[in-house]
Every structure is written in structure tokens, then in C-alpha cells.
Amino acid sequence: MSDAVQELYLDVVVNQVPTRRVVQVFADEDRRLYAWPSNLHALGIAVDDLPQDRYLGLDAVPGVDFRYDAARQQLHVDARVDRLDLQRRSIDTVGHRRWSADAQAGALLNYDLFAIHDRQGTVSAATALRVFGGTGIFESSGLSQLREQGDSEPYVRLDSNWTRYAPSGLWTLSVGDFVSGALPWTRATRLGGIQLRRDFSLQPGLITYPIPQFLGEAALPSTIELYVDGVRRYDGDVAPGPFELTAPPAVSGTGQARLVITDTLGRSQVLSFDFYNASRLLQRGLSDYSVELGQVRRSYGIDSFDYRDGVAGSASLRHGLRDWLTLEAHAEGEDGLAVAGAGALVGLGHWGTLHGAGAYSSGDGDGSLSHLGYNRTAGGFVVDYALQRTHGDYRDLAAVDGRAPPRRAERALVGLGASAGGQWSLSYVRLDRVEDGRSRSLGLSYSVSPLPRLSLFASLNRDLDDDRALGFFAGLSVSLGHRISVGAAAERRDGHERYSAYASRPVPTDGGGGWALRSERADTGNTHQIEAGYRADRVQWRGGLRRDGDRDSVFAGAGGAVVLMERSVFLARSVDDGFALVSTGGVADVPVLLENRQIGRTDAHGHYLLTGLNAWQPNRIAIDPLHLPPQIRFDHEQLSAVPAARAGTVARFGLERTRAALLVLHQADGSAVPLGSRVHHGETATAVVGYDGQVYLEELQAHNRVDVVRADGSVCTVRFDYADDLHDLPVIGPLRCDD
């Protein structure tokens, strides 16, 4: 360059996007612009094919237009997409949020009572005591049964355990009774001891399987839309340059995605992708595990404290080594028995997933296990196959006091459907047991909905080891609206025929009544039953009559919970997971809504125990302000409650009762106090007089004095008494304002 040049420092705009960067540029006497190559590269302009040891004339860079705006001291760059050397931007639509759960201290007792009277009377009860708080949850469940004749069981303990959750670490610690972790090729065992396991449910928004990534690039600021199987899953904005979009496909198996990129000039381009989503795979670097140590539980449901002597241990692990490869390992054992095995789940792209595993046992039983599985889902077509065999005298923990693993367990399924033509499936099952020998069956099923409210279904089952064992089942179901459905079915199995018909209206989840009628006719006897139920805020009732042949019976039941929280006792529906105690500050009969559905109303103390919440995630709870008394003031009408699993939280709405009234103020001559006059009540309360001398005041006392300041500065005083009225806003006056 010559000496007659001008050095400039310009703000840079690349493809209409401000970079917020300043670059050194030289302009010669002909107003040609020059820049050093490394400076252009820092702006995201690819210049690797140009000389790097000298200033480059900007008008000589191919595929790029430069424009100098002297008034704004800006350099505008318009580059083709192939000239952009920008870092790929990652657009993650999956990013989940971990919500902090609030677990208040309390206790509850779930109960389910059932009584039946036929030729003898029987009363049974299932109970579960739960104590919860910030340090964890203790729960103990059991069964009781009393009979008029025969042996009774006053109480049999089922499970007792203390559990602590760690949402940030995604692990759960249990001490007491539990079921060991298992893999598809191992068997779970009931133990009493200690268990540490991965718990993905602590972060409901976490996606554990590999997610497809869609790549694209934009030359100008653009809007992108992602469609998966014709349904839009994402839309947003993207800056110029390459980008990577990560979005959950919301489908299983094969799918097709279209990415529509529309720039600021209205030009669109469409990119198509094929993908396969396998939810059983783990994302790369993600692990799932379960480790247990304790004693094997025996006679579950029969004996409260029957544990096998000796200490047993079990461990299961799954790890995502790659997005397409998940490794598995398992070990278990006790005195005289050791089992170890490993496996792998391999993603085959659009061809599905392949699963293989092997294990070996030694000690009381020396043998091996082999497992092979395959699965592919493509639209409405499904292929699923699994074969597991044991060799030698293979044993595991469950076999010490129970049945040995099957010598051969094989299943195959081919399904076709998800269309107007209905759904077909063909299945084959084989089970070889040491105790029972070989069992093989072949099944064919079909279902279709030819009309919006009509469903037809049929199945055929053949026992391949018994030529005479042919089973058939067919039926229909019709929805009549208002939650009422009717149906009929016919069945033939093992040489016996059965015909049935029903009509039902299920009990609503949010509360209300329901009923069911059922009648069966068979060559072994006829059965007729009528049943009704009602789900209230504090209990769910059910009862009915049944006739089996010439034997009549009547039955009834009730289920619910007794909850202790906030130093109060509440009756509620059964509490299976998280729940919230809604508090309206003592205001009764306030409608309570869950996700915009009215569930119930607060009691006389302003409480409502709301069950059925989702643990570890926000649940939108609201009150209906339109049904509040006029003397009630509230801070908010909606909040999000995040309960821990099987525990409760408190949802407080800041309702306050205010002592308010509408005053009508007149002057000494009988005319209304002038519009805009200021009214002073108490030390700080100030209001303005409206039309016809009306003014609204709160925080009134039994005896009140207000001072009125008119526009001309003159002052008058009003004294009056106030009687509290919760349901109506009292209108007091006309009141004379004396000077």
C-alpha cells in the first residue's frame, strides 16, 4: 500500500448481525479498503485460500461484499455461507431444569378396607404408615384379614423402609425392605438391608436416551422450524453460520424430520433427515446402577419377618459408552453362590437395536446363561425377539428358595398397525422349565376402530404342544358419551365357552360417582355383578352385589388416608405420591384448582388436602378469585408446588380478611363531598373521593374517624361505627362531614 492511506477502526456487521467487534481497516486514495487476513478470520470470514502475509483488498475477496458506512463508522459484510468460518452454534431444546422440592414434616396412614359377606364373612384391610420430612421418608405397609370361619391374619407386615432422595446426585438410598435392581436378563430379588441406586425420576425432565442432532447453516439471520413426522416440535431464531439443533423426537423407532430455514429475505430451504430413536440406550457418559446388601426375604405376604440366614449382595450397572453402545454388568451372590455376567445393547441405526448378554454361576450351581434380543420399530411395524437359555446347573439368588430360572425362555412378536386398517400382531412364546416341562404357544390378534366410538378386537391362541388346545377371544366396545361405555365378548378356551357383556361409567379421577354392570354366561356357571362407587374429597366408597351360580354375596369397601400436617389432622383420598396442603388463611369454601381443573373447596379452617400431584416437578395450583367474598384480599391466585416423592408440601395463598366499606359523604348543606377530595384515615391510609361523594376505605375499626380535605384546603370530619360483614361490602351513609 502507498503512504497516502487512512487508518480506520470500524464497527463490523456481518450478514446483518452486529458483531460488537472493531476491526482495523486501511483506505487508500481510491477509497479501496484493506484488512489483515487474521482480522478477517476473527470476524468469521474464511480466507485460508488467500495470501496470509500481506493486507488483502476487501474487494478482491471472492464471495464477500464489503460496504463502508462513513456516517456510522461501520463496515457491512455480506458473505456467502461457504465463506463463513463461524463456530457451530448448539441449540439445545432439551435442557431440563431441576426443581427444588419442598417436603414439610408430617405423617399419613393410607387404608383400603374391604368386606364381603357370602356364606361366611371376611373383612380385610391394607394399610401403609408413612412419616416424611426433610431427612427422608419412613414407610411400613401390611395386610390384615379377619374371617368368620377359618384362620384369620390379624396383621402381616409387607415392607418397612427408610428412603432418602438426592435429586442433585440422582441417587436414592433405602434402608429396610426393597426389591433389588435387575437387567433384562436377570431376576430381581426381595431383600432386607441397604440399597443405593440411580433414580432418574428425581429429575423428570432429564432425557436419558440419545437424542438426534440436526445440522444446518444459515447465511442470514433466519428462523428455523423442526417437523418430526409432520408435527412441529421446535421453532426459533438462529444467527448466520452453522448450527446444531438437539431436540427430542417424541417418537420411538424410525422417523423423518424436516428442518425449514427461512432467512430475513423470506427465502426458505428444507433439509430432510431420517433417524432412529431407541429409548433403551443410554446417552454417552450416562450411568444407571443399583447396589444392594442384605438378607433375602422369604414368604412375602405370609410371614412378617422371614429372612434367609447369611448376607447376600447384588449389583447392576448400565453405562452409555457411546450413543450407540450401552454396556451392562451384573453380579450377585451369597454364601455358597456367586453369579457374574455382562452384556451390551447396540444401536444399529435404522435397523433397530441388538442386545446380547452372558452370565456364569458357581457354588451351589455351576452353569451359564446366554441372552440374545433384537428390536426394531418403524412407523406401525414392530419386530421384537428375545431368547434366553441356561446351561448346566445355573442358579441365582431367586432360585435358592424359589423356582430355578427357565431352561429356555423365548418370545417373538411381529406387529403391524397404527393405521385406519387396524393393528395386527403375531406372537410366539416358549417356556421350558425343569418343573413343568416345555410350553409353546402361538397367538394372533387384531383390533380396529371402524367408527370413532366403536372398537373391535379378536385374538386366536394355539398351544403347539396340545393339538386340542385352541383358544379364541373376540369382542367389541362402544363409547356412548358422558364416560359411559358398553361392550360384549365371546371366549373359547380349553373346551369351555364363555359369553359376557358389560356397561360401565368409571369413577372420575377428580371426584364423582360411577357404576358398572357385568354378566357372564359359561358352561361352568353364570356370574352377574352390579357395582357402584363414589370418590369424595375425603374417602372413596364402593359396594355391590354378586351372584356366582347359586351363591350370592354382597361386598363394600372404602379407601382413603388420614394425614397429620401443620398440627392438624385431615381426611383425604389415598395418597400414592406427592400431595399439597392448600391453605387459604382460614377462609372457607374457596374453590381449589389443579392445572385449571376444579378439584374441591377448602374446609371450615381454610384447608384442602390436594392429592395426585407429580413429584419433583411443578404442579400448578390455583384458587378461583371470582368466588371469594368481597371482604377478602389476596396476594396471588396461582402458584407452583413441587412436592418430593410420597411426601407433602404446603401451598399457601395469602388471603386476608379486610374490614372495608363504601362510604357516602355529604357536606353540611346536604350536597356530596366534592370529587377529588382527599380522605385521611388512621396514620397512613389515604383515599380519594369519587362521584356522588363515594369513597372506599379498608382497615376499619369498630369506631372510626376520617378527615376530608377539599380542593380549597378546608377540612371536615366524619365519625361512624362499623360492623364486620364478610359476605357483603357494606355501604355506609350518607354521612355528614362536619367542618
From TrEMBL:
GO terms for molecular function: fimbrial usher porin activity. GO terms for biological process: pilus assembly. GO terms for cellular component: cell outer membrane. Residues 662-722 form the PapC-like C-terminal domain. InterPro entries: Fimb_usher, FimD_plug_dom, PapC-like_C, PapC-like_C_sf. This is Outer membrane usher protein. It comes from Sinimarinibacterium flocculans.
